[in-house]
Amino acid sequence: MQIRRASSEDIPKIISLLKSSLGESLLPKSVEFWNWKHLQNPFGESPVLLACEADEIIGVRAFLRWEYREGNQKYQALRAVDTAVHPNYQGKGLFTKLTTQLIDEVKKEGFDLIFNTPNGKSLPGYLKMGWEKWGKLPLKVKLKVPNKSEKASKTKDWEEIAGLIARLEKSPPWTEGVRTSQVPGYIHWRYRDCPIVDYQFASDGETFLMIYRLKEGKKGMELRIVDLFHHSDFGKNQRELLRNEFNQICKNSGTIWVSFSGLNYDSDILNLGLVPILDRGPLVTLRKLREDLNPKDLNWKWSLGDLELF
Q1: Are residues 103 and 173 in the same domain?
Q2: What angle in degrees, to the nearest 10, is found between the helix axes of 11-22 and 31-38?
Q3: Same domain (yes/no): 124, 222
Q4: 224-247 residue pLDDT tens
Q5: Is 60 exceeded by the pLDDT of residue 150?
Q6: What pTM was computed for the model?
């Protein structure tokens, strides 16, 4: 068996392995999605390891590159994402072998930490390999009575806010703490160009940008707020504009509940009522790559957009 770094020529076989090992139930597996996620990422291409027998790929382990920032301090991070082992080779320690070898390699490349949001099945394996629980993101929810005379909201053109996005990506962070670096191209890549989710936005085109998605569930339509950006010109009048537009979006969409998961909820900006904040968001785990840095001690300001499963 050979373990080596992946190349672009391997992608069709990687997709085939993901499909045979994981199926299509959770996330779609396609060359387009893989390229967007691992090659077009503005933080850089993902380090990916493959296990091969002859010409067959029997295992894959990918870490998605990410960058966080607090003031002038940058943290080069990775997110543990796509992993799969061919059904004929499962239960033989290949997942652990690929993961630990890739950890050793990225340590030498100067990365600071790894983060992810494992499910209950995969969590024990990560904890054995040195991951630590940070905890669950807080979740704020608001129940709404759906509007009986729904009026479809007009889909907005991302080009209308291109200037605002450019300003946001050049501006210093609007809040203290460790946040995703707003490098040029990040917002478009993460939200406008995502091939599997139709993200929408509310904005005045000048000072604020709220990213959300509509998700149909068993209990009805959910409006899920995933990110909120603004800069120093965002004042009282702009907050009122945001609240008015937000309320109109909720009314037109037929939403029965609104959710805001993350560490940046501010009732002065967007008040979602009196329901207590719940400990029901994604479980975050961290793996340090530097002995002098414990990522659990950082002042994290994650948004849901940083941690949504994709």
Answers
A1: no
A2: 110
A3: no
A4: 999 999 988 899 999 999 999 999
A5: no
A6: 0.93
